[in-house]
Amino acid sequence: MLGGYDDTSRSVQSRRNIAKRSESLRRFIQAQYHQHYNKLQSVPLNEWCNRFIQLDTGGYVTKDQVYKQLLQEWPIEGLAYESLLEEYQSSFAPHCVSRPCARQLLRLLRNTGLKTAIITNGETVFQKANIHQLGLSPYINAVLVSEEEGIKKPDPVLFHRGAKRLGILPEECLYVGDHPINDVTGARQAGMKVAWLKQQDSWPLDLPSPEYVLQNLWGLLPLLKELGSQ
Fold first, then answer.
1. Closest Cα partner for 223 from 175, 168, 161, 171?
2. Less crowded by CB within 10 Å, the N or C end of the chain?
3. Cis ω before 100 (30° cut-off from 0)
4. pTM of this structure
5. pLDDT tens across 159-191, in order?
6. Which controlled-vocabulary keywords does the entry list (predicted)?
């Protein structure tokens, strides 16, 4: 999530910061499992879900590879990874759930004059459908998806492009992200201020510490106030 915080225009960029990704993914996996229960019933639901999430590695392994591996470990007659992948791409969005108060926060930021953008890696139709499902579109000034842009995080060029879409300079932006490399390192190299939205994992010891750490999205409000007064 990206935004600027100067006196005249404020702004705050990464879809996964707003969506409850793990919960959304688990909801979809369970629905897909039940849809194919007549073929998958030999595999316990929890084992299928947990292995999917383990192979997914937080979304940084492509889903075709996840499905291929699942079907190698549990050969299921009549199921092809291509069909499961197509279902994921076309049917994931209705299972998306947002972090608590995410829309309220974005509405508040927009009402205070803050420009907001989302930068996300992935396929354009898939990611934009998820953003729409989460009800974020009315509160976002720009959405940059790697497929559509032809470049992906952590390339600083994508972050520069996001700032330009908001009509502000990179140094006027605050980027909020949860991935140490794709989000924090990429935005930092683009010259932005960066807040790491802390997840369960600890910060990697081999990377410079983030400037700011948020325990949740609501921590963004006092941080923006602090930056605005500097």
1. 175
2. C
3. no
4. 0.86
5. 999 999 999 999 999 999 989 999 999 999 999
6. Hydrolase, Magnesium, Metal-binding
Rounded CA separation 21/56 (Å): 11
| Cα–Cα distance list, 49 to 22, 27, 31, 65, 126 (Å) | 11, 9, 10, 15, 21
CB atoms within 10 A of CB 75: 8
- To the nearest 10 degrees (0 to 180), the angle between helices 21-35 and 81-91 is 130
Q: What sign for the dihedral angle of Cα 193, 196, 14, 189?
A: positive
- Which one is predicted more confidently, 199 or 65? 65
Output the pLDDT for position 170: 95
**pLDDT at 17 (0 to 100):** 63
Helix, strand, coil percentages (3-state) for the chain, rounded to 5, are 55, 15, 30
Query: Which pLDDT belongs to residue 21?
Result: 83
What end-to-end distance do the CA atoms of the chain give, in Å?
Answer: 21
CA dihedral for 40, 46, 50, 51, sign (positive or negative): negative
Q: What is the pLDDT of residues 83-122, one digit of tens each?
A: 999 999 999 999 998 877 788 899 999 998 899 999 999 9
Cα atoms found within 13 Å of the Cα of residue 58, Cβ hemisphere only? 9
What does the alpha-carbon distance between residue 101 and residue 63 come to, in Å, rounded to a whole number? 29
Q: Copy the structure tokens of residue 108.
A: 């508040």
> Residues 200, 132, 159, 56: is their CA dihedral positive or negative?
positive
Task: For residue 11, list its beta bridge partners.
Answer: 115
